From TrEMBL:
The chain crosses the membrane at residues 9-28, 34-50, 70-89, 109-134. The keyword Plastid does not apply. It comes from Aequorivita vitellina. InterPro entries: DUF4199 (IPR025250). This is DUF4199 domain-containing protein. The lineage of its organism: Bacteria, Pseudomonadati, Bacteroidota, Flavobacteriia, Flavobacteriales. The keyword Transmembrane applies. Keywords: Membrane, Transmembrane, Transmembrane helix.
């Protein structure tokens, strides 16, 4: 299981970094609205990781699938946040000031606030998408065999 979520978590992070650098190349990296595409990247990667784990396991349990989704997104979130921290502190120090100015916020809040925002938004996206995808991947109890698991 570690192999699945670590592999897909790293690939999600690479895709997020590539997307950000593409936006930087075009000059659109200053528009936070375009980060909504990050949700699609997260969603695709988490779904593929959970689907791969579900097909590899004979007895797919909800808890294990949920764990795969959370850890896949968690690894991607942490790696992307580390990249953004390096980018904001070392490569483009004016990037954080530009974002804060667009949001009409005081710069005294600093770059750390943006980094924490990236991390929190990534974790929130991971949790929501994992919950949604587990509804698609879980086994239904709406069968004759499943009726014996209901309360009478």
């Amino acid at each position: 299981m570690f192999k699945v979520y670590s592999r897909y978590g790293v690939w999600i992070a690479i895709a997020l970094i590539a997307y950000f650098l593409l936006l930087k190349l075009i000059g659109f990296h200053q528009y936070p609205e375009l980060s909504s595409i990050n949700g699609l990247i997260f969603g695709f990667g988490i779904y593929i990781a959970m689907k791969k784990y579900a097909t590899a396991e004979n007895n797919f349990k909800y808890e294990k699938g949920f764990e795969v989704g959370l850890f896949t997104g968690g690894i991607a979130s942490i790696l992307f946040t580390i990249f953004m921290a390096i980018y904001m502190y070392q490569i483009d120090t004016e990037f954080a000031a530009g974002i804060m100015e667009r949001w009409n916020l005081e710069y005294s809040l600093g770059t750390l606030m943006l980094i924490l925002s990236v991390l929190i938004m990534s974790f929130a996206t991971t949790i929501v998408l994992t919950l949604a995808f587990m509804q698609l991947l879980k086994k239904s109890w709406n069968t004759q065999d499943g009726k014996r698991h209901t309360m009478k």
